[in-house]
Amino acid sequence: MKTIDTTARVLDGVAIAGEIKAEVGVEVKDLQARGITPGLAVILVGDVPASQIYVRSKVKTCGELGIYSEMLTPPESITTEEMLKLVAELNAREDIDGILIQLPLPKHVDTKRLLESVAPQKDVDGFHPVNVGRLQSGQPALAPCTPAGIIEILKRSGLEIAGKNAVVVGRSDIVGKPAAMMLLNASATVTVCHSKTIDLAKFTRGADILVAAIGRAGFVTAEMVKPGAVLIDVGINRVTDAAEVERLFPGDAARAAGFAKRGSTVVGDIEPAAFAVSGAYTPVPGGVGALTIAMLMKNTVTAAKARRGIAVAQG
Ligand code: GUN
User: Fold this and answer.
1) Both 104 and 225 in a single domain?
2) Per residue in 17-42, pLDDT tens?
3) Residue 277 is part of which domain span?
4) With a threshold of 0.90, does the pTM exceed it?
5) For residues 311 and 315, what is the distance between their CA atoms, to the nearest angstrom?
């Protein structure tokens, strides 16, 4: 069997997420001792199976850490106006500190208008223009959870960011753009690449830190990576094509057996062969994905404190 022969360090997202959740749990206990229970409301519209899985895990983690949570599940047919009313009610509630609207929303709903309707101090996703602006101007802000998780992985693993060449592939509002901003705030030299970038490899080969957030299985290949680079793989792609599995995991018997059993396998945006040339990498699963919920919990507690004028430690 051909295995990846590598001395690269695996950045264990599950362990780091565990550390963060433990710290948040302590903060929640301190708040509860003062009669405060942080509260999170999650709005999940319609029947999107992937979103249902994510939201269930968010609610479950709240329960584990002592955070009150509430799940609102309006039907697919809900209008923008009805959604706005729902958010306004949550904005006004004293027991709710964080509001999360699970994306994507149905096409007929005005996502931008809705995200703008969330009170900025309850915007635990960090998607409101006020928080986007605060982040970009270096002021304390509720920052998007996945990019915030990337920074935590780098910092808690003792990996230097300042002065490094960081290349972000992908320019989404949820991951790529805020990740670039947070790396810049941490003094990296940042390049953002995207689907229209000409000669992508020219940029990625110069990256000391490479963040892949494109949403295409194994898109970043070993030839595109500088030896010793830190690879941060944000992709979670379900591959159902046997030939693609063989391309990505040649001779990997365990992967082939899992694929034969389930008919699919989960792959990041970086091909596994690239990990062999890297200095450190986040695996999929078990890397960045694990951090997203931990950072949501952290943001919820931060929002609960900030709204009550309790000092918030800056990360
Ligand atoms: N859908 C995929 N990622 C996210 C996220 O971080 N927040 C929300 N609200 N929806 C998502």
Assistant:
1) no
2) 999 999 999 999 999 999 999 999 99
3) 144-291
4) yes
5) 13
